[in-house]
Amino acid sequence: MKKRPTLVVDHSALRENMSMVTGWCRDAGIDVAGVVKATTGMASVALDYESCGARWIASSRLEQLARVKDAGVKVPLLMIRVPMISELDEMVRICDYSLQSELDTLKALERAALSAGVTHNVILMADLGDLREGCFEKEELVDLAKYVEDRLDGIHLAGIGTNLGCVGSVKPTEEKMLMLADRAEAVEQAIGRPLEIVSGGATSSLMPLFDGVMPPKINMLRIGAIVFCGPNEDLFTCYGRQEVSEMRDDAFVLEAEVIETNTKPTHPIGELGVDAFGKKAVYTDRGRRRRAILAIGRADYGDIDDLIPQLEGSEVTMASGDHTILDIEDCKEILRVGDIVRFKLKYSAILRLTASENVTIEERN
Ligand SMILES: *Cc1c(COP(=O)(O)O)cnc(C)c1O
Asked: If you write DSSP's letter for every residue of 103-160 in order, what string do you get?
């Protein structure tokens, strides 16, 4: 029997989505780095991206990039989480590009690159207000760039970049993109040559591109989320972009098995303390309703809000680490033990499910 739960990965959907992204970007003079971290670095996904015109494959984890490299991806690999000093020796052997923000790390990177006998390409990060990695002041970025250019061997200053719409939720507006373009020009002035790469951000930076306000100076985006989720990507739900409505939202589908069906009260009976995760939950009394328990839980996918039930009329109401309660009172279909229920997924659920050892991944081409 097929092992459950199963995460079905539809590679044709991923390729359709990535081709749309590389198409939009190509029209704006932008190259795409395909980010695979949300799939825990599935090498097959990297191969999809490469075949759809991604010019780099990127991840925030070295072990994922190592896997991608072993699968025979030909385009250069890009490490997008500013690296630990302790992983530099490994990093220069696995990938050719990395994002950087610290002088001490860059000095250690010089030693690592020289001892491995390679030239490693760096993209220096500018923090434009989202408050994650990068030089906050323009002068700081220019000084760091000048140091790399003039003083460090074995390291090539390939460009600068920024990250927005992350820990600080800052939107990649035209103003922020112009700020990045301005920093790139300042660095070019200081080093006396053009930079190859000006990297304008992640999926959220498709907004200025859709709006036609992306400055021509920006020539790289690092894209993950929108390819995996299409219209289910929260960013686009919240800003309501039309362009994305034609993308596929079924590249990742979770199949879970029913282990109990019953009609039970919807409000717990007894004195209420805390739930399985130590949280005080709020329950709405909707009377007795028909429901199913599925053999999958928060240990696998994280948060019930990241599951999008495909069974019409059903709703996920509660979950423990290993159980998910599905309200099926309003469903036309009758569910029985052993039946399969399907869910489309939001980003964090894909991230967790691909990493869960309980979940079998089934790939379709
Ligand atoms: C995760 C990440 C990306 C990709 O972001 P998406 O929203 O998945 O497109 C790009 N750049 C950096 C630095 C990241 O950490």
From this structure: HHHHHHHHHHHHHHT--EEEEEEE--SS-SSSBSSHHHHHHHHHHHHHH-SSEEEEEE
Residue nearest to atom 13 of ligand 1 (CA): 80
Q: Does the structure show a pLDDT above 70 at 238? A: no
Distance, CA 257 to ligand 1 centroid (Å)?
Answer: 33
Helix H, strand E, coil C: the string for 36-59 is CHHHCCCHHHHHHHHHCCCCEEEE
DSSP secondary structure of 169-220: -----HHHHHHHHHHHHHHHHHHTS--SEEE--SGGGHHHHHTT---TT--E
State residue 233's pLDDT score.
Answer: 77
**Is residue 278 within 8 Å of 298, Cβ to Cβ?**
no
Considering only CA atoms, which of 361, 262, 344, 261 is closest in space to residue 305?
344
Question: Using an 8 Å Cβ cutoff, are 352 and 302 in contact?
Answer: yes
pLDDT at 70: 98
Strand partners, 290: 263
- 37 assigned to active site: yes
Spatial separation of the C-alpha atoms in residues 354 and 219, rounded to whole Å: 31
